[in-house]
Amino acid sequence: MFRIGHKLARSIHRKFSDDSSVDVSESDGIRYLHLGSDTVQSAMQVKDPAALELRYSRGVMLFLLFYPQAASMLSLGLGGGSIAKYVHRYLPQIRQRVVEINPQVIRIARSHFELPEDDERLQVIEADGVEYIAQHPETADVLLLDAFGSHGLPEALSSQTFFDQCAAALTAEGVLVANLWGSDKRFDVYLQRIEQSFGDRVLVLATGRPGNILVFGFKQIPDDLRWSTLRERAKALEAGHRIEFLDFVEALRDRNPCSNHRLFMGSPEEQS
Asked: What's the predicted TM-score (pTM) here?
C-alpha cells in the first residue's frame, strides 16, 4: 500500500461509486486499484499482467525460502489479484483460495486486472474472512493476510483472537504472511499479537519507508536459518523468478534477532 502523489497524471480514472468506493487509475503503463482514496491497493503492468509490480507483493513470495514444498494457500483480501495471478501462473503446484468480502472488488479484479476465472487451482470466495478462518482449521500451508480497507486494517482482522485463529488455520508446518502498514500507530500492537499467537516464531521484513511491512509467523521454526543457507536458497529462487530474494534475505537483518551466522526466532529453548 502506498499513496499516489497529487501530480500523478492519470490516463484512466474510473470510479465505481457506491458505499465501498472502488477506483481504477492508470499511468505510464501501470494500472492501479484504490479503495476510497488515492492509496494504492494493487498495481499491474498492463503489458505483463502476471508480474508483481509492487515490492511488498514480491516480498510475500519469501515464504518460498522457508516452505518451498507448500501446496495450498489461503488469502484474505483480493485487491487486484496480483499475488493470486502470480501464484496461479508461476507456482502450479499450489492450490489457492482467496476470500474477499466485497463483490465489487472481485468483479473489477476480473474486468480490469485480468484475474483468471476459477479453476482447479484457484477459487475466489465471496465471504467474510474472519468467519471463514474461524470455520476452517488446519486448512492451508500458507495464509496471506492482505485485507486493507479505505481506513486501514479492520479491527476484526487484527484482534488477538483472530491471530490465534490464523495460527489454528495453518497446517503443521504452515506460514502466516501478514501485510501491515509501517506507519500505522498500532503496528507494534499487531506485531505483539502475532508473536503471541506464533510463540515468537516470527520474522519481520520491511519493504519500503515507511511502507509495507510483512510479518511472517511460523508454526515450526524452519530447519536451517544460517545466512549461508538462506543466500543459497535465494539465489536458486532468483533463477526461476524475477524477484529480489537475495535483497530480501539481507533486509531480514534489519528487524530480526540474528548473529553474523544465522537468524534467530522462537523461545530460547527452541533456538538452542
From this structure: 0.91
